[in-house]
Write a structure and sequence with these properties.
With 266 residues, the chain is mainly alpha-helical. It has two domains: 156 residues, no CATH class; 97 residues, Pectate Lyase C-like, CATH 2.160.20.80. The longest helix is centred in the middle third of the chain and has 30 residues.
């Protein structure tokens, strides 16, 4: 029997607005106000829905539109805490625990997102083993989640993703790992099969650039102009990265990412 697909996309209808309450945010991060963790956003309504969800960008809250918990919110709500809301917790310490669990499971779910791509494009038994470890942790108790060595799991995942990247990319591709390319006009650069891991592409001009098989793991694409760019075959691109960039109807995106993930101008 085939394994059912993992649920790694946020479903706010099944979450008690955990990110709007448990996580801190600041104005410089694209939020309309500073807020400490454990305090509900002032736009949050009694039904745990956002009062300005339809026009977050226009109201000065673009940070909300690019945040994605990768499905960790509904996992914490429905499984880890058995349907309990943050409103049901008795103390700030309990809220702090739930916030830490949400952050931990978001890391777990993001690793699973990337490992799913490995399974689709460059299968590896070692990656399958790590998926099993992560799924077991995902369904554990809060104490087990918070005492797990996530850094070790992240290191193992990073090595597996790097190996998959090497298998899938042309070795002649440019190595721009962690390069500072902010604001640069890259329209004449050959970025096919490039390693852009952790690269700073803030506000870069990538209009109509072909990024075939380029590795975008952790690349900062905020404000990057991707109108007309071909990202259909890039590696390890996530919805939050895409949502922070400037796109249009001619931007080609990977098939596993929804068009709704495209950013301003998309």
């Amino acid at each position: 029997m085939p394994t059912p697909p993992l649920e790694l996309t946020a479903d706010c209808s099944r979450c008690h607005a955990l990110c709007c309450v448990l996580l801190p945010f600041r104005r410089e991060g694209g939020f309309g106000a500073d807020k400490p963790g454990g305090v509900a956003c002032h736009h949050l309504q009694a039904d745990d829905r956002c009062a300005i969800h339809a026009d977050l960008r226009e109201r000065g809250w673009p940070g909300c539109t690019v945040f994605d918990c990768f499905g960790a919110g509904q996992q914490v709500t429905e499984v880890t805490y058995g349907g309990a809301s943050w409103r049901d917790l008795d103390s700030a310490g309990d809220l702090g625990e739930m916030a830490a669990v949400l952050s931990a499971l978001r890391r777990v779910h993001e690793m699973l997102v990337h490992l799913q791509e490995v399974a689709r494009r460059a299968p590896d038994p070692a990656a399958d083993d790590l998926v099993g470890r992560l799924l077991a942790l995902r369904d554990s108790t809060p104490v087990e989640i918070l005492t797990a060595d996530l850094d070790e799991l992240q290191d193992v995942c990073g090595e597996l993703l790097a190996a998959a990247s090497r298998r899938l990319r042309d070795p002649a591709g440019a190595d721009l790992t962690r390069a500072d390319l902010a604001g640069q006009d890259l329209r004449q650069r050959d970025l096919r099969s490039a390693s852009l891991r952790g690269a700073l592409l803030l506000g870069a001009d990538l209009r109509a650039v072909r990024l075939a098989s380029a590795d975008l793991l952790g690349a900062d694409l905020r404000g990057a102009d991707l109108r007309g760019a071909d990202l259909a075959d890039v590696l390890f691109l996530t919805a939050p990265q895409l949502a922070g960039a400037r796109t249009d109807d001619t931007t080609r995106v990977p098939g596993h990412l929804p068009r709704s993930a495209t950013g301003a101008g998309g």
